Amino acid sequence: EAQVTQNPRYLITVTGKKLTVTCSQNMNHEYMSWYRQDPGLGLRQIYYSMNVEVTDKGDVPEGYKVSRKEKRNFPLILESPSPNQTSLYFCASSLFRNGEQYFGPGTRLTVT
Amino acid sequence: EDQVTQSPEALRLQEGESSSLNCSYTVSGLRGLFWYRQDPGKGPEFLFTLYSAGEEKEKERLKATLTKKESFLHITAPKPEDSATYLCAVQATDTGTASKLTFGTGTRLQVTL
Question: Angle CA(A34)–CA(A36)–CA(A39) in degrees, nearest 5?
Answer without folding.
Answer: 160
